[in-house]
Amino acid sequence: MHNRIRRRNAVATTLLSMAISASLVFAAVPLASADDDGSPHRKPASSQAEPAVTMVAARNDRVARLLASMSLEDKVGQMMQPDTRHITPQQAAEYHIGSILSGGGAAPESGNSASDWANRADSYQHAVINETGIPLLYGVDAVHGHNNVADATLFPHNVNLGQTRNAELVKQVGSITASEVRATGSNWVFTPTLGLPKNERWGRTYEAYGENADLSAKLGAAYIEGSQAGESGSGLAGSDSAIATAKHFIGEGITKDGVNQGDVPLDYDSEAFRKILDSELLVPYRAAVQDANVRSVMVSYNSIGGVKCHGNADLLTNVLKRGLGFTGIVITDYNGIDQIEGNLNYAQKVAKTVNAGVDMLMVDEHEGTQPKWIAARQAVIDGVNSGDIAMARVDDAVTRILNVKDEMGLLENPQLAYSNKELLAQFGGEAHRAVAREAVAQSLTLLKNRSTDDGSTLMNDLPSMKRIVVAGSSANDIGMQSGGWTITWQGSVGDVTTGTTIYEGLKTAGKENGQTVDLKEDGSFTGNYDAAIVVAGESPYAEYAGDRTADQLTLQQKDINTISSIRKTHPNLPIVLVLTTGRALTITDQLKQVDAVIMAGFPGSEGEGVADVLLSADRDFSGHLTTTWPKEANNITKKYIAPNTVLFPYGTGLVKSQVN
C-alpha cells in the first residue's frame, strides 16, 4: 500500500485543475482508482426534489411481521433519535422511540462513571422494552474510544491511526471501543470519519485517517469490521459489538477554505465534481459498504454547489442506496435537518430530508416551545397523511432500522440491549490500555533528525543520554494530549481523565534506563542536560470550533517562546520537538531552532507510547505522514501543484538512523 500510494502522489494531478473553484483546492493527490462495481446510477439534477424511495426487504419473517403490526405512529417513532438530555425514559416508551443518543458531554446526572452510563442506558431500555418489546439503538460519539466516559481507554485520534497504516491494529481499536461501549449499554458508535482532509484549516482534520482515499478505505473498513465483530469476533449478534457509522456522507474535507459545514463550490452535476466523487470521495464508502458491511452512514453537514447533503435525494438514494447497494440506516448528523437551504419551515425541512433517503433523524434541543424530536415526529406523520412523504419511504426506513436491530439479536433476545457487567469489569483495563499505548508508539512519525559529531544521529543517541529536560504546554497535560472529544465535546486542558501524560511516560522510561528526566514546562532551567524534549501543539477543539484561518495554524505563543528561550540560553543543547497537533502547522521558524521533529498527533490517554520509541534503543519509528505538510499555511491551496511550497511530503517518515 505504501509504495502504491506514493506512486499515485507523483502522478495523480489530473483532477486538480477541475477542482479549483474560488478558494477550494481538492487535491487529486493521490487518486484512488474508480471501480466499475458500485458506480452510482444517477437521475438528472431536476429529480433531486422528488420523493426518493428504494425499498429493502425484511431480512426474515420476524421483521416482516413486526413491521406489518405497526401503526404509522409506531413506525415514525422508530425513525426518531432524540438526545437523552431532552427525552425521558417514560417519553421514549410512550412515543415508541427507536433510538436515542448521548452527544458530546451528555453525562448522566448521577455522575460520569461507566456505571452511571450503564444505569442510565438500562433505565431507557427497561422502559421501552416493557412498552414495545423493541429495544433501542443507543448511539454515542465514540470518536477515540468511549471518550465521553470517565476512565475509558482513550485511543489516539484517527490522524494517529492513519500514520500507523496498520489495518489490524485499527481493527483491534474498533473492537475494544465497541466492548467498552457495550459495557455501558450503548450499542452504536458514530465513527469512523471517512472524509479526506485536503485543507488543514478544517477543524475535523484529526478525525480522518488522511488525505488518501485508498488509505482511508483500508483503515475505515478495518475499524468497521472490528467494531461490528467485537473483541470476541462473534459479529453483530454478539454481546460486545457495536454498529459502526461511516461518516460524513459526503464532501467534508474539501469545502471552501476548509470550513466545517461549509460548501464544496462545484456544481453537483458538473464533470469536475462527478470525477472527484467517483475516483476519491466514494472510495472509502465503497469499502465500508461493500467490503465491511457497515450498518449506518451519517450524512454530512456540508453542501455541494449550495445544496445541503441532508436534502440531496440523488446523493443519498441514487448514489448511496442504489449505486453502492447500502442496506443499513442513513442517519442525519446532529440537528442536520435545520441546515436544509431554502425558505422552508421545519416540517418542510423534515419532509425534504426523509424524502431524500434519510432513515433516522438525530434531533435535539427545541423547535419553538417543544422538544425538537416531538416536532420532527409530528412532521413525518403529517407528511405521510398529506401525501408529502410516501408511506413506502417510511416503510423502507423502518425496515432498515428493524433489520439492523434483528442482525444484532435484539429482537430475538431483548436482554442483549442492557449493559454488560462482565464487560464493565474490563472497562478501561490494562489490556485495553496496552493496545492504546501500542497505537501511540506505532503512530509516531519522525520528520526531522540530525547527525551527531560521532557519526550517529540525535534520535539514535537519545536513549543513552543521562540527563534530559522536558518542557512545553503538552508535556504534562492529559487533556492537551487527548484533544477534542475527550470527556466533553470540545475537550479541555488539565487532568480530565485517567491515563499517563507524555512526561510521566518519559520519566518512568528514563528511570528504567538509568536516566534523569526533569520537567521544566516553560523551558527555564539551569544545570547541564544532554537534550531537551519540548512537547507542544494545539489546545483541544472539536468540529467548527477548530476551524482556523491560515495565520492561526501555528504553535501557541508560549510554546514558541519556550523553544526560543531554550535555544537562546542553551545554544548547544539538542532540542527534540514533539508535536501534539491534529494537523500540519506552520513551524518553519521553529524548524531552524530544533534538531528533531516528531508528529505525535493527539495520542490520547496512554502517553507512555511516546517514551516507548523515544527512549528505547530497541524500537524505531514506523509512522508516516498521511497529509501533505506545507511550509506555510498560506500555501495550503498550492501544496499539491507547487512542490516548492511543501515542507514534508505525503508519506514522510524517517527512522532513527536517517537524517534530513
TrEMBL record:
Residue ranges of every copy of the Glycoside hydrolase family 3 C-terminal domain listed in the record: 445-654
Every Glycoside hydrolase family 3 N-terminal domain range: 72-404
Protein name: beta-glucosidase
EC numbers for this chain: 3.2.1.21
Domain of life of the native organism: Bacteria
UniProt-listed SUPFAM superfamilies: (Trans)glycosidases, Beta-D-glucan exohydrolase, C-terminal domain
The keyword Methyltransferase is assigned to this record: no
One Gene Ontology term of the molecular function aspect: beta-glucosidase activity
GO biological process: glucan catabolic process
Species classification: Bacteria, Bacillati, Actinomycetota, Actinomycetes, Bifidobacteriales
PANTHER family: LYSOSOMAL BETA GLUCOSIDASE, PERIPLASMIC BETA-GLUCOSIDASE-RELATED
Entry keywords, A to Z: Glycosidase, Hydrolase, Signal
Species this chain originates from: Bifidobacterium stellenboschense
Pfam family, one: Glyco_hydro_3
Region of interest called Disordered, as start-end residue ranges on this chain: 34-53
Signal peptide (from-to): 1-27
Catalysis: reaction(s): Hydrolysis of terminal, non-reducing beta-D-glucosyl residues with release of beta-D-glucose
Entry similarity comment: Belongs to the glycosyl hydrolase 3 family.
Keyword Metal-binding: no
